[in-house]
Amino acid sequence: MATTADFKNGLCIELNNDLWKIVEFQHVKPGKGPAFVTTKLKNLRTGRVLENTFTAGVKIDLADVERRPYQFLYKEGDTTYNFMHVETFEQIAIEESLISNPGLLKEGQSVEVMYDVKTDTPLTCELPPFVELEVTYTEPGVKGDTATNAAKRATVETGAEVFVPLFIETGEIIKVDTRNNKYAERVK
Predict the structure, then answer these.
(1) pTM greater than the 0.85 cutoff
(2) For the chain, which residues make up each domain, given as ranges?
């Protein structure tokens, strides 16, 4: 059991006989009336996002989940991805809908798979916050276009498209934020 004071982003709770992950939360203390907590919750089974308000101090059931380290092996067909547990070498297949950003997943990439302990089923597959990928194609930058914060499309080794600054060239390694699919920096 926990209370609303224990809320943090990424915390998994049980609500209405389902598992939810807290995406955002905010404690609100109005001048008149009791304090409350507004939350944005994501269903771990369906991916549906719901906004909910809790009275401050109310008790919440924590979900019994476990994060396990896996390594991406290969993609099978259009929507099935195969992973291997890094300690037991057990292999599992996960549907694309459970993966946080499948377009940035490359072979050998380390990920965390969240499991429901009661049913021992995978709920989500999360990439690390940043991944390093090689730019396989981008248009050359035009000289003199640097007065503004301009960006151009670049295709990375996984086939995903990312907007990058004009100075990035084909063959360079860049760091991409997996949470918003945006360019972070050039890797030296």
Answers:
(1) no
(2) 2-62, 65-126, 130-186
